[in-house]
Amino acid sequence: MDMPANPVWQQRLFLGSWKSGNGEQINVTEPATGEVISQLKAATPSDVDRAATTARDAQTQWVAVPFDQKAEILRKAATLLKERADEINGWNTRECGSIGPKADWELQATYEQAQMAAALPMQPSGEIFPSNMPGKRNYWKRVPIGTVGVIAPWNFPILLAMRSVFPALAMGNCVILKPDPKSSICGGVLMAKILEDAGLPEGVFHVLPGGPDVGQALVEHPLVKMISFTGSTAVGKKIGETCGRMLKKAALELGGNNAQVVLEDADLDIASSCGAWGSFLHQGQICMQTGRHLVHRSVADEYIERLAARAGNLACGNPAQEQAHLGPLINEAQAKRVEDIVNRSVEMGARIVVGGKRNGNYYEATVMSDVTPDMPVFSEEVFGPVAPVMTFDSDDNACSLVNESLYGLAAAIHSRSTERALQIANQIQVGMIHINDQTVNNEFQVPFGGLGSSGNSGRFGGPANIEEFTTSQWVSVMEEGIQYPF
Ligand code: NAD
């Protein structure tokens, strides 16, 4: 991909339209090479105020835009995503270290979110309730929340921003998006350009690249009525505290440490394929990543052998220049963190079956055995390409190991007996369970979300978006006025 000479975001911020910014420059560093490949303007906390005021003023007009016109804008945005696939995927590869298939998948999933959001404005928006009072009608209707602040992470920066942005807009809200500074081009300014070109009225959507100070200013701004946050549990808790204090709605989609359970009657070829995909896709930097492989003792050796063979075939490389299964991790700090977790677990008795080496920002696909629950590779969210395998002896034992984690995002269960797998599913406390499949599952039409330390039960997708991005209002109408006793 050729770097644009004068990109639209040069020196500018998208505050409902392109405005000059006076914040610092963010250097966009390519994780594969360490090269600075572009620059963009960071927002400042005072830009949050500018955006929130503009959005408040724009929202009345946006709500009044007829539903078919809102739908048309979102459909046009979907079309532009496809038309600009090369540009968007190019940035996803160079800015975020994504391999081609990951970038393609993310774009397709974002396209589906736009198409689904385009269908929302025409959904029924309320119900009629009876009244005991003659001549009185009770309407209960969905209304927009106002301005929604969306704070997104860097790992799937396009999808995880736009899965909130599109439905929030569809339901009549204005949106201020704060992307992560490590992914503000593909997960920020490119999306601003798409919505602008799709015909979204000025002032309705804003993009404020920046760090925690900008995020915090967004969360604390009184004109921002809801925060939709995707990111780490630690930051999500802080945001939840602030929102709680301000009585502000918060949808929190947080970290995970997801288990794949392999029963002794499982198809080990399928299970090991699912395990490899679940652990190594996008270098393991996925909230739904398979972070714990729980395998029945009687088949553990065979499972480990098959999983290790798959891992051993995976090549690390710069996805902008060569075909690679694993690109770089997002930066050196993250790669060193993965290395440290693996090394500390080895010191505690774990064994590296394959992989286990870091080369700059790259980390090999790694399989570990002899893992115990007290090891960091089992108890922490590694966010790297590491597959720790632990054994169990009974279904109850497997369930308690799954539930040992405070996280509760996703789980997978492999068995030739669907009934047995469903019984286990009934005892597992997570938001999403996939039988004979892997943990990294996302379908735009199905509500998505976690429990416990993985989130506060907010849900994205399908009908859940209507509930998530609206509030409700009771309107009653008396045909004629009524006299009260005084
Ligand atoms: P992070 O929490 O560090 O950052 C996420 C976003 O929050 C970024 O935009 C960041 O700038 C912003 N931020 C940081 N501090 C803030 C503050 N004090 N106030 C407001 N905003 C602040 O997370 P990360 O490291 O970028 O992403 C990885 C984490 O996200 C992992 O834990 C992963 O599991 C989780 N995640 C969850 C999901 C999900 O759907 N459940 C999806 C992807 C990633």
TrEMBL record:
It comes from Marinobacter salarius. The lineage of its organism: Bacteria, Pseudomonadati, Pseudomonadota, Gammaproteobacteria, Pseudomonadales. SUPFAM superfamilies: ALDH-like. Keywords: NAD, Oxidoreductase. CDD domains: ALDH_BenzADH (cd07152). Residues 18-475 form the Aldehyde dehydrogenase domain. The active site is at E253. InterPro entries: Ald_DH/histidinol_DH (IPR016161), Ald_DH_C (IPR016163), Ald_DH_CS_GLU (IPR029510), Ald_DH_N (IPR016162), Aldehyde_DH_dom (IPR015590). Belongs to the aldehyde dehydrogenase family. It holds the Pfam family Aldedh. This is Benzaldehyde dehydrogenase (NAD+). Signal peptide: none annotated.
